[in-house]
Amino acid sequence: MKHNTSQDRSPSKFILLVLALSIPFWILGAIAPDTTKILPIKLPISALMTFCPFLAAAILVYSKQKLEGVRGLLKLTFDYKKIKYKKWYLPIVLLMPFMALISYWYVSLTSVMILEPQLSSSSIVAFFLMFFIGAIGEELGWSGYLIEPLQNQHGALKASIVLGFFWAIWHIIPFTQAHQTPTWIVSQCIGTVFLRIIMVWIFNNTGKSVLGMVLFHTMINISPYLIPNYGTHYDPFIFSVLLLVMVVVIVIFWDSKTLVYGRL
Tens of pLDDT along 15-51? Predict the structure, then answer.
């Protein structure tokens, strides 16, 4: 059986397939009841498109390797053995909550805020599980399938920008259906590109672990909701500035072609 390597993968086919699979969810988000008024968080029903990257990857892998390839893709979800240097769990797990705290601190100093109770521990666990499953749906596609052929073509930094740009554009319709303002959406999209650069940096320094990306993606989504009242004080502009600082550090100290620094 032919082995499906990154050289066999077409980024353009994958991206087009993700878009095609996402369209029904965008339509559903437009015609179905507004879930942002039912749920305690602004999560439109079109957010279910989170599984489209995995579905696209599974379809393309199946066309080459049948069920064996799909099983191999699914196994990437728990490839923790690739993370040889355990210190990388620190940015994977703590970077986004740390930025959320800085953002909340800044907003509390610069605006009038009414502090609400923090989420209960049970709510945090429920959110974590929900976002973890959703992150699997995305990262098996973005990190498990797409990023390698992109890096082979463009190098790590350019590939992360390309993926980050598409990742941001892909989210615009759900952001709109969540009733976010144009300014919020622009800031969030800019931050999304910066996030993917950071993610590819972590990915390449953790033996290309998809689990690392799933965990980091989970922390991206849950961190704003650690702020009181389900993240109502979350400001994507502040997050984008903080992420930009991190990206500048990465670009200065790590090789742009690989985003790997040999001594780390």
Answer: 999 999 999 999 999 999 898 888 777 889 999 999 9
Over residues 76-131, the pLDDT tens digits come to 999 999 999 999 999 999 999 999 888 888 877 877 655 555 566 777 888 899 99
DSSP label of 143? I
pTM over 0.90: yes
Cα(85)–Cα(82) distance, rounded to whole angstroms? 9
